Amino acid sequence: MGYFAGLGLVANGLTLPHDLIAWALAMILLFRAYASWSVLLEASLIPLTWLVLAPLVPRQGAAWHIPLVAVVLIMVSHRVTSRAATWVSLLCIAGWVVLALFTNSLGWAELVFVGTTLVWVSAYAFYHVRPARCHQHGQIDMILCSFSGNTAHYAQVFAESLQGVLVVHRFHKQDEFRPHLAGDTLVLAFPVSGWKPPWPLTEYLLTRLPRGGGKPAFILYTSAGGPENAGFVAWALLTLRGYEVVGRLWCTYPLNVPTLRIGPRSLWHWADSHTPFERDMVLASITSAALARGDRAGLPVILWPTPLALVGFLLDNRWLNRFAYRAYAWPRRCTGCGFCIRYCPAGSISWVAGMPRATGTCYLCFGCVNHCPQHAMHLRFWTEYGGPYKTRWPELVAGHGSCETPANSCGSRSPPGLG
Question: What is the DSSP string of 78-90?
């Protein structure tokens, strides 16, 4: 009877103090495994989801904690790089799912938790319980999308420990992007835009990316906060194009959305100076070295039980952006330097009556606003009340440095080739 009473205690759900204790233990395990603050920030999606749903739906026991259990077990076993550890983790997750299904009636929230967990855990099992394939990394193609220089800097740090020839293909103007991907491996690097990859890059991956034919791929991305399901979206797109995604990694970088940068400049200067975290830079070097050796690299691909990526695509896309986001210049500040016209990845800014004016769609990259030397460019009703993000790495902004034509490819083994 004591055994079944114990199962009932687990199945009926834990109280808030127990939730906090379980979460603290999970954070300790993840930090011990990865020593990365960004990993903890991403995993914080789980308690935030609990916090939002708890007042709305009754908790249905063990299913409430399935995302936490699966994330900790898979992420730790992935770091251990042992097939035996992976099998043990999968069996523990299966046992927890069975416990949840047979000890309680599930509400819609728990069904979402169970369903999303089964999707990403099944995908992970498909790729990682079979014998490891030996991948050759003689030449590595990197598709680099970076509007503020943050992702380019992260890619530069990642590239320092790669072996072989690295060929960087700078994705800036979608219509002009015609890379020749002749390498053995593909690295996709991009900034998270609205909890997803930028919509022009998404379109390219979905419709124009050459078929991979089983070629290994790695996902690298940056975000100012939790990236939500941007990595899973990129994984799905690469998988549809025939690539085998062997890992992913992301890092926290300064917020580059002027709309949200409200407050004293000194405050934002202080906040910007504290990211990226040094521990995340170390993890990037360790991960790229593991990728070069053919070992498990980075983080497993996870589908978080939140809808923010879908919301991002609804609020930021080719059609809505034609009228929802409109760039213009303040006449009293504009000096007519033409930087915004040269930079605009959508090619939507042109001279009208001697002033820059936008027509057509917008990438919502905020490049014209952030990089304008006179702070003259704005998105109407969006950025007037915030401060621009002045990049810490101006030499890595498209149009500067070694790649004067951002749409073209520039190949190099050295980090300066990422400019």
Answer: HHHT-HHHHHHHH
CA distance 292 to 253: 25
**Strands laid side by side in the 185-191 sheet:** 244-252, 216-223, 185-191, 139-144, 165-170, 409-411
Of 353, 383, 385, the C-alpha closest to 368 is 383
Check: CB of residue 146 under 8 Å from CB of residue 398.
yes
- Beta strand 409-411 with 327-329 is unpaired
Strands 244-252 and 327-329: unpaired
Mean per-residue pLDDT pooled into runs of 10, the chain (419 residues)? 36 56 89 93 89 80 89 93 89 92 82 94 86 69 96 96 89 94 95 96 96 94 93 97 95 94 91 94 94 87 94 95 91 91 92 88 94 92 90 86 37 44
Whether the CA torsion 251, 178, 363, 270 is positive or negative: it is positive
Q: Spell 300-319 as b/e; 16+ CB within 10 A means b.
A: bbbbbbbebbeebbeebbbe
Tokens 């809808």 appear where?
307
C-alpha count within 13 angstroms, C-beta hemisphere, residue 363 = 29
189 vs 195: CA distance, rounded Å: 15
**Which phi-psi region, left, alpha or beta, contains residue 68 (left: φ > 0; alpha: ψ -120 to 50)?**
alpha
